[in-house]
Every structure is written in C-alpha cells, then in structure tokens.
Design brief:
about 120 residues, 6 strands, single chain, about 25% helix, globular, alpha+beta
C-alpha cells in the first residue's frame, strides 16, 4: 500500500494518508495571543482545511486527541468543540492536560480520519 505524505518538512509531515486513513500532525494555533477559545477555533480551522485537502472532513473523524496546557481552559475549549462537531458524528476523543512544546500554545489537536 502506498503511503502519501503532504506538507513534508524536516521534522514532520502535516498529513499522512495510508489505506484510506488520514493522519494529521498535532495542530496548534499560529496566533498565540488569543485565549483558549480563539486558539481552539483556529486549530479546528486547520483541521478542517487539512482534512479537505486529504479528501475527508470532520464527519469522518475516527479519533481525536486533545492536549490543553491548563485544565482550567477545558470548558472554553469544549464550547468551541461543541459548536464545531457535527451532531451524530461526534468522534471518540481523549483530552489531557500537557506541557506543550511552545508555552504560548494553549491547545493542540491530533486527528485520525477516514477517506470516503
């Protein structure tokens, strides 16, 4: 089976596609001056864009892993998540508090999705 990588960099690829499954690298906000709500909106926008590029969308997410720098931000992140997910297509999800590589980042989202 072919492995296709998109946006390949020195350290990571943003997307890997194998056997009809799309794997996204952890997505973070570029505008780290935003609060958890703003950063989460931006991150989920990156997810939407990358899934579309890979021929998928958020209704086909198989799993989501969410890392937040402070569990105090959990309600704000959930507010944006709940607005973003499609009712009836909410994926399995884990959310954990983690020290992120960039201390200005408040949230990082890792997605695995299926292609049609």
């Amino acid at each position: 089976m072919e492995i296709k990588r998109l946006h390949v960099g020195k350290r990571l690829s943003e997307i890997t596609i194998h056997n009809g499954t799309v794997y996204l690298a952890g997505q973070i906000a570029e505008n780290t001056s935003e609060d958890i709500v703003g950063q989460t909106r931006e991150v989920l926008g990156h997810v939407d864009r990358l899934l579309a590029e890979a021929g998928s969308d958020k209704t086909r997410i198989l799993s989501a892993q969410i890392y937040i720098a402070d569990m105090a931000d959990f309600p704000g992140m959930n507010t944006v998540w709940d607005e973003w997910v499609v009712p009836g297509n909410t994926p399995p999800r884990a959310t954990v508090e983690a020290k992120l590589a960039n201390p200005a980042c408040l949230v990082e989202v890792v997605i695995v999705a299926a292609q049609p």
